[in-house]
Amino acid sequence: MKLSLFIHMERISPDEPQDKLYNEMMALCEMADEAGMHAIWTGEHHGMNFTIAPNPFINLADLANRTKNVRLGTGTIIAPFNHPLRLAGEAAMTDIITGGRLELGIARGAYHYEYQRLMPGLDAWQAGQRMRELVPAVKKLWEGDYAHQGEFWQFPSATSSPQPKQQPHPPIWIAARDPNSHEFAVTNGCNVQVTPLHQGEEEIVRLAECFHEARQRLAPGEPLKIMLLQHGFVAEDEADAQLAAQELNRFYNYFGAWFKNERPVSKGLIQPLSDEEIAANTYYSAEAMRKNLAIGTPNEIITRLKKYEALGYDEFALWIDSGMSFERKKASLTRFIRQVMPEFH
After folding, report:
1. What is the mean pLDDT of residues 85-97?
2. In CA terms, which of 10, 21, 247, 331 is 20 to 30 Å from 51?
């Protein structure tokens, strides 16, 4: 099982200089490359300091000049916000800039907050339908001249300019949760990204089974892959692990607040949650984070990841976004590199 890093620039306070936060994110990415991690993934989000990522291709182009070997992935492009012709060209150009290291992850999007601002009236179902129209169109544009008459996009004959370096095209990954999404990915020759978020082993097993069942039934001969994206923290000791569980519980409370889209937002920052509000939210808890996420000492993390490998996961991406300080993220990643990674080489 390959080990990767999933990362965004995140801003918790208006007092944090944004260029400093970007440089810290890049420093962690450079660590991942130097250590021999498989890939770096970063996504697309708009108007949210919680996850600052207006165009992942910009970040990946920068990383192409800062790194040597690591694969560079979009985790993920939001399908309804991208025209097929534009996405095909931007992805192909990024593939050229990165020297053929691009991995293209695509999703329907998760935040109603973003839907409201970029495409008012859009809902999750329609966003999913747009993704299903977008992916085949992009592949056709990479092949050559292609005219499209779909439900959401229409254009006369066109082609991707430029063409991607990787042939026939960069690997495509679909963010999937329900069986239909797994079936769509497999039918279209795409790999699958899954995240159980804060949920535990039962969900991790279910997601793996969805993929393997769809692949076996629909594309048994295709070398398709599944990647597990999960928050984690490699702790120095149990006290450090407990602190990480508390920090990630706070992160998920903010994630939930953004997802509900009911709380005031000013200058990209959500109205702060009080300790009392976090304690009263029984949907998340530090105890559940400690149990369900990849939090623990190096030996605990190795044991957990070996279970994922046995379930048939081809790649594990350590989701490092957490609201933690740069120093804590760096310490965790250092332990991951030095004490966990050697068990998977």
Report:
1. 98
2. 331
